[in-house]
Amino acid sequence: MKKFNKTTGNNNIIFLKLIKNDYFEKNRINGELLHKDKVVANIVNDELEVLNEEMLPIYFKQNGDLRSWLENRCIDTDRENSRLLKNILEIEQTNQISTVLYAHAHTLTDNYWIRLSTEPNLKYDDIDFKNDILFDIAIFGELPSHDITLNSEYFCTPELTLGGSFEKGWTLKNNDWFLIKTGENLNNFAEIIASDLCKYFNFNAVEYFKFNSSSVCCKNFTNNLEFDFEPMFDFVGDDDDLELSLNYIENINKSFIPDFLDMIFLDALLLNPDRHTNNYGLLKNSNTGEYIGLAPIFDNNLALFATKCNNINLDTGNSSQIKNFYLPILEKYSYKIPNLIYTDLKEIVKAAYYQFNPEGFSIKFTTDFIWNKYNFIKDNLK
């Protein structure tokens, strides 16, 4: 083991572990895929030899390869703070495989991880996340105000396996993990409105709160890994065809369909352009591997006006996005639109508005915009 200090301004981050490099860019992976402490498959030269079919991630049952699975678990390398994190941890900047294996491919959304052949005695408890020591660096790019010591040979941080394009980080409060995500005022405004509307409609959804003037927060929806999240990406890749996703969900359990339709309705109501196969999926019992339902609705911060120019009107999106993309699916499954009262909607918008004060869109215009979408859906849903 090699000990070294890395100086960051007036502070030191002291490492007591082996330095990792670009080894896995040039060499194949050997070891084991585990779920908690159960070996699911042996890994021989990047290939899986399955030992426990029941606990195998669906991605591999769909003939997905190991390296692509690992890359999909990696922090977004385009995030500025991800580059800072990797620089501090001495990780090869461009190598996603080395980055994700630094954390043994472990995440805070499921219990899978990789044990390399060079570390046969490693246990789940050794790599389980126990602190948020790098949180401020991950989300705010702030170096610690005091020396910190990463004092385990197998130090792991959940920040290295947290995807998405917005700066974000995991923080630990009273033994519960919370996700903090930064954004512009319009992003956070949209996230809070979506969250509060879901609560109003009694949808299965993650509840978001204001964290500070530039961030929102939510509790880890896996309930600290009581459940495993399996993103729809693992079933269909990056195919955004909602009908295809519905077919998979229907084959797993038809009772999961109403929650999926609620998500589609919300996306139509708020003109969310960013529903992709990594921000919805299914939850599994982490002990049995049984599917228990859809993951709660999350990640709505590009809805409403976050990706739109100021030159919009109340009818924007009706005849194109809603009519062509969302209504056919809602009609096919005879979706019953939930009740919404204008004055209640206005209060939801007002509460979010005063938290983040977005520029360019008033409380009245935002309320009328959503109300217009609601009535367009209601009037055109056959």
TrEMBL record:
Gene3D superfamilies with a match to the protein in the record: 1.10.1070.20
UniProt-recorded name of the protein: HipA-like C-terminal domain-containing protein
Biological source species: Clostridium perfringens
Lineage: Bacteria, Bacillati, Bacillota, Clostridia, Eubacteriales
